[in-house]
Amino acid sequence: MDRPLETVLETYVDEQVVERPVIEQPSVQMQPGEPLPAGAVTLLPSGDAPSEEALLAPLERGDAAFAAGDYAEARRHYIRAQLDGPYAGEATLAYALTRFAEGDYSLAAMALRRGLTMVPDAIDRPLDLLHFYADSGELDAHLLAVTAHLAQHPDDAYGWFVLGYVRFGSGDAVGALAAFDRAAALDSQDQLAYLLRDAALAAVRPTAPSNAEVPDPPAEPQQVPESEPLQAAPPELL
What we know:
By secondary structure, the chain is mainly alpha-helical. The longest helix has 17 residues, at 136-152. A hairpin with a 2-residue loop joins β1 (8-13) and β2 (16-21). α3 runs antiparallel to α4, α4 crosses α8 and α7 runs antiparallel to α8. It has helices spanning 52-67, 71-84, 88-101, 105-118, 121-124, 129-132, 136-152, 157-169, 173-186, 191-204; strands at residues 8-13, 16-21. Strands 1-2 form a two-stranded antiparallel sheet. The protein has a domain at 55-207: Tetratricopeptide repeat domain (Serine Threonine Protein Phosphatase 5, Tetratricopeptide repeat, Alpha Horseshoe), CATH 1.25.40.10. Helix content is 52%, strand content 5%.
């Protein structure tokens, strides 16, 4: 999906990314003091800016659908939140959870990575999974599913990345640390995996017993990467 941003507009239609070429409008050549021709200026409709409540509404509807187990419906609301308001990063992270719940760990990882570059604070303070899952047993089942997937595909770095973030968001910093360690070991250039590993390590250390041995993180450059172009991503999100 390496495309120059100035030549392509992306819009979501039923989760499909529709590519439309940008049509360049000819510039209007004006002489000093000459009045603007009709149609040269488009006035935006007047009205108040959307309220905070209105901006949060798509996220809240998505959360309600997620809690009810309707992940496809939740995803539609999260996509709307990405398009309509200032909470695109949070909506992208929530979108990732719908993919995790459905067992699509590659898309879940790509959406997580995109969302984390948009909301870097979510590296140290991950989404609270219990906010999304009304039934903790459902979360346990989804954790068992990704664990079983990794037992069969131990070299799936995306899977380990997703498991790490979900464990981190469900309060299991020790399990998250182990998962991020595996993700980083599989891809030594994955800066986000190292940053998340450090965040999990920081969460583990204050609660570890005084005689517990907590490994130090590897000496890797610690910086939030730029939003990464998706490689061979399915034509849905991102």
